[in-house]
C-alpha cells in the first residue's frame, strides 16, 4: 500500500511538472505574433550595436540584398526617409562620396550616373561655373587638369 502511494505521488508529480514546463516558442512562432515582432524590431532599432549588427547582417545576406534591389517600394521608402531627414541624407551622400573617392571604378560609375541625369548635370554645371573650381589656374582633379564637364 505504501508503495502504491509513493508510485501514485511520483506519477502525479511528474504529470504536474510536465504540464508546467513549456517549451520556448520557436523564432517563427515568436515573429508570427505582431506585438512580439514589433517588440523585437523596436529593441533592435533602439540599440545602436544591435542595429549595426542588423545592417551588417542584411548586407551579408544575398537574399536580403536581392530583395532590396528588386523591391522599388522598399527603395522608395528608404529614399523618402532620407528626404525627410536632411542630416541622414548628408551623411549618406558623404559616405557615397568617400566610397567613390576611394575606388576609381565606383567614382567613374557615380560620375556617369550624375552625367546621365540631365537635372543633376545642369545643377552641377550651374554651381560650378561661378565657383573657383572653374578657375583655369586651379587643377580640376587631383590627378591633373581633367575637365569635369564635357
Distance N terminus to C terminus? 104 Å
Order of helices and strands: HHHHHHHHH
> Compute the gyration radius: what is it?
30 Å
Amount of helix: over 70%
Q: How would you characterize the largest beta sheet? A: none
Shape estimate: rod-shaped
Helix/strand structural class: mainly alpha
What are the salient characteristics of this protein?
disordered C terminus, 75% helix, 150 residues, single chain, mainly alpha, 9 helices
Summarize the topology:
Layout: H1 2-20, H2 27-32, H3 34-45, H4 48-60, H5 62-70, H6 72-83, H7 86-102, H8 104-116, H9 118-129
Give a brief description.
The chain is an all-alpha fold and 150 residues long. The protein has helices at residues 2-20, 27-32, 34-45, 48-60, 62-70, 72-83, 86-102, 104-116, 118-129.
Task: Characterise the protein shown here.
- With 150 residues, this protein is an all-alpha fold.
- 75% of the residues lie in helices and 0% in strands.
- The chain is built from nine helices and no strands.
- Helix 7 crosses helix 8 (104-116).
- The longest helix is centred in the first third of the chain and has 19 residues, at 2-20.
- Residues 143-150 have low confidence and may be disordered.
Amino acid at each position: 500500500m505504501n508503495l502504491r502511494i509513493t508510485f501514485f505521488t511520483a506519477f502525479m508529480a511528474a504529470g504536474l511538472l510536465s504540464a508546467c514546463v513549456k517549451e520556448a516558442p520557436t523564432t517563427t512562432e515568436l515573429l508570427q505574433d505582431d506585438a512580439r515582432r514589433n517588440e523585437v524590431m523596436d529593441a533592435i532599432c533602439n540599440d545602436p550595436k544591435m542595429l549595426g549588427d542588423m545592417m551588417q547582417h542584411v548586407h551579408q545576406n544575398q537574399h536580403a540584398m536581392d530583395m532590396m534591389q528588386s523591391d522599388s517600394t522598399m527603395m522608395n521608402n528608404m529614399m523618402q526617409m532620407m528626404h525627410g531627414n536632411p542630416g541622414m541624407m548628408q551623411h549618406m551622400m558623404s559616405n557615397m562620396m568617400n566610397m567613390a573617392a576611394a575606388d576609381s571604378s565606383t567614382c567613374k560609375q557615380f560620375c556617369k550616373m550624375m552625367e546621365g541625369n540631365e537635372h543633376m548635370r545642369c545643377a552641377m554645371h550651374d554651381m560650378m561655373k561661378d565657383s573657383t573650381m572653374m578657375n583655369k589656374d586651379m587643377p580640376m582633379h587631383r590627378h591633373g587638369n581633367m575637365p569635369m564637364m564635357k
